[in-house]
Amino acid sequence: MKRMDLQRSYEVVNKLTSVERQVLDLVNKRVPHLTRVAAAMLGVSRQAINKLVNKLINADYIKAEGQTRARKYSLGKNRVYFNSYKLDKKNKLDEHVIWEDFEHVFDTLKPNVHEICFYGFTEIVNNAIDHSDGTELRVCASLSEGVVDLMVHDDGEGIFKRIARLRNLSSEKESILELSKGKLTTDPDNHTGEGIYFTSRVFDNFYIYSSGHLFDHNKERDIDFLLEHNHDVEGTIVEMQIDANSKTSQQDVFDAFAPADEFSFSKTVVPVRLAIQGKENLVSRSQAKRVLSRLDRFKTVILDFEGVENIGQAFADEIFRIFVKKHPEVTILHTNTNDNVLKWIKRAENTKMGV
């Protein structure tokens, strides 16, 4: 699936007028005598409502059966819904209740895609409720042109700022590196830290948009992107997209990182390029320790060097000799290494073995 524009759901919503969205809500609620009720409720003429309904039928948002007075309406193959919620720590929202508001967007999906949407929706909404410290949550979902798009936007502190602050990291960019590893949580009593990691991998496209940074994960790409942006985004936007005909199985993704015979999240893939700050090269032991932070919690670690042109002796030595010696229970693997990077890795490994 090709990469979609960020905030695609908002764009789909904004193509519909407020009246059109209210009519779709009436259709979803299966209100009888749709055109008559809609005209009375919305204060417009029956002629205007009929014209609007026909427009929505032609756009596949409404399906009509029967003729004239016996005509019945139901939702079409395209779906869209938007709602906002007040965030209040004293009267906490329940992500499952919010899901019920949106479930009609997903009820025609194949079981595997429906399961993925439920998982991602509830995980990300719960994170916003529990961690954002915001006052408002805006949620948008659409099924259009064969693509499902979910977007969750809170007006809180911002996920990258929050992680950097609570974990005493040197920069917001470092918090993105930590997120990419998995098992990261600022509330270990109530969360495992696995939700965002697995959510990013079950969807085709996954974006986190906050504090002047965009984290972009695409299942068809070996490399994650961290981009600077100049948009004025308050809080955090998380957007998830998946092809409605996707064959991705949530269980297959879980099993790839948490083998069924272990029942634990034991494997991670770390995009090493996210450890690069500014124009620096990866040459120091402190940079290596940035990469290695919390990796002793896994059994298998794959360091992905895609986009890393070179590393230094100390960087390689800290990872492939010292860390490996201190943590023999952790298997460190590497992938996408060019000749320059591989040279220093082999040297560190040979030094470890006394070659």
UniProtKB/TrEMBL annotation:
Pfam families: DUF4325 (PF14213). It comes from the Bacteria. InterPro entries: DUF4325, HATPase_C_sf, WH-like_DNA-bd_sf. Gene3D superfamilies: Histidine kinase-like ATPase, C-terminal domain, Winged helix-like DNA-binding domain superfamily/Winged helix DNA-binding domain. Residues 287-341 form the DUF4325 domain. This is DUF4325 domain-containing protein. It comes from Catenovulum sediminis.
